[in-house]
Write a structure and sequence with these properties.
9 helices; single chain; two-stranded parallel sheet; 16% strand; alpha+beta
């Protein structure tokens, strides 16, 4: 019985160990979850950038900082109220009697007081507050400039992804065409109407096109990462773009109309105008230091030897400050402010010229891209006809495949040309919208 019992224990332990080590006892492998899919149109991508892009968020924070500076300057013009309470135990020196100094007996003083000060007139403080308001407008203009540039960058990245999608589609069509032609040549070769060189030539081009296809696929994923980074969203998602490259059918605006819109809507113009205003007000503020300033001050409180035995006292007065001479410091600050104003006025000329150049460049590029796309469409039609004729000529005349190979190469190049023309037209459309300050109106 002891032997049977021992055998049963050994058997149970072995079963437990086997169960622990068996695959059935192991935790099942976790199935990787699919990444969430984010579908974005061009308009949605632009709107997403306004909420998530770090540069846009940074300039929003700068606006809040400028708003805080403006509130600080305003506080110098508003009443300043403070209160204090003091309880002291002290003695006083009463002089010297004989050879010994004499002091009073210790006594208590309790003093609770409120003080009020108010600037009645200070041209310098007024102009400083106005300058801080203009500086806040500068921060807002800089934020709008960053927003406009960010929207344009996102739109261009969006177009870049669409271009690479089109390239992948074209490369795929090229691979399928080469496969079809290789099969066609080999069938002709088996009947003695084509050579091994004909087949090898097209097979080489097929492999080259396959390699270009793989590169195009990697470019799609690479440009999607660039777009996700510009949007400021999570990288762990699958991005699907719902728009396509548009055919450039819209008319190109006239240079005069585009310039009028740009001078009104470009945030750089608004920001530079406010910088000039800040410099003017700063100069006026420094000059205002020459003028007298008037300030009212007063206090009211209770004072006595004990907290429960006090009398009310007050002090009210007006202070008139008249600047006379400060060693020439004020005149130095005036010269510095005047020089800063001159610099900002010169910068306005630079900003205007930069906007003009960007606008004219965008108009020229858009016009050229539309013409390039039109030519590319005609070239694609001719290339398709060339391939059809070369294929028919090879079938009927049993000539070498050089004509057919050249025709297919022309078709491949024509497809690349039309994609390039389509992309340039759409990219030029984005650049023109940025130059005119109308990126948010892109569709």
């Amino acid at each position: 019985m002891r032997i049977c019992t021992s055998f049963m224990w050994v058997f149970l332990v072995a079963c437990i160990l086997f169960a622990e080590r068996s695959p059935a006892a192991e935790s099942p492998p976790q199935i990787p979850q699919e990444m969430p899919v984010l579908k974005l149109s061009l308009k949605e991508a632009i709107e997403a950038a306004l909420d998530k892009n770090p540069n846009v968020q940074l300039y929003k924070a700068r606006i809040e900082a400028a708003r805080g500076v403006s509130r600080t300057q305003l506080g110098a013009l508003l009443p300043n109220l403070a209160s204090s309470a003091k309880y002291s135990n002290l003695t006083y020196f009463r002089g010297t009697i004989g050879l010994s100094p004499v002091r009073t007996q210790p006594f208590d003083i309790a003093d609770a007081r409120g003080t009020l000060s108010q600037s009645l007139f200070s041209w310098s403080l007024i102009e400083r507050w106005r300058a801080s308001r203009a500086a806040l407008a500068v921060s807002e203009g800089e934020a709008e400039t960053t927003t406009n540039d960010t929207m344009a960058t996102v739109a261009l990245n969006y177009m870049d992804v669409l271009r690479n999608d089109e390239i992948v589609a074209a490369r795929t069509a090229n691979v399928e065409l080469y496969k079809e032609l290789v099969a066609f040549i080999k069938s002709r070769q088996s009947g003695g109407m084509a050579t091994g060189l004909d087949a090898a030539t097209l097979e080489t081009q097929l492999e080259n096109e396959r390699q270009r296809l793989e590169l195009a696929k990697s470019d799609v994923e690479r440009t999607k990462l660039i777009l996700i980074n510009a949007l400021g969203i999570n990288f762990d998602l699958k991005l699907v773009l719902t728009d396509e490259l548009k055919t450039p059918d819209e008319p190109v605006p006239t240079q005069e109309y585009a310039m009028d819109v740009a001078l009104i809507k470009r945030p750089e113009m608004k920001a530079q105008e406010q910088r000039i205003q800040v410099s003017r007000l700063t100069l006026s503020s420094v000059k205002g230091e020459r003028l007298p300033s008037l300030q009212a001050q007063g206090d009211y409180g209770l004072i006595g030897n004990k907290v429960d035995s006090t009398l009310s006292t007050y002090n009210v007065g007006v202070t008139l400050s008249i600047p006379i001479f400060d060693g020439g410091q004020r005149e130095g600050r005036i010269g510095e402010s005047r020089g800063q104003l001159l610099q900002e006025e010169i910068k306005m000329t630079l900003v205007t010229r930069q906007i003009t150049m960007e606008l004219r460049e965008a108009l020229v590029t858009l016009t050229s891209a539309k013409e390039q796309f039109r030519i590319a469409k005609d070239g694609l039609k001719a290339a398709v006809t060339q391939v059809q004729l070369a294929r028919e000529r090879f079938r009927l005349l049993s000539s070498n495949s050089l004509e057919l190979s050249n025709a297919v190469f022309s078709l491949v190049r024509a497809r690349d040309n039309i994609i390039d023309g389509l992309f340039r037209a759409n990219a030029s459309r984005v650049n023109l919208a940025r130059a005119m300050g109308q990126v948010e109106e892109l569709r």
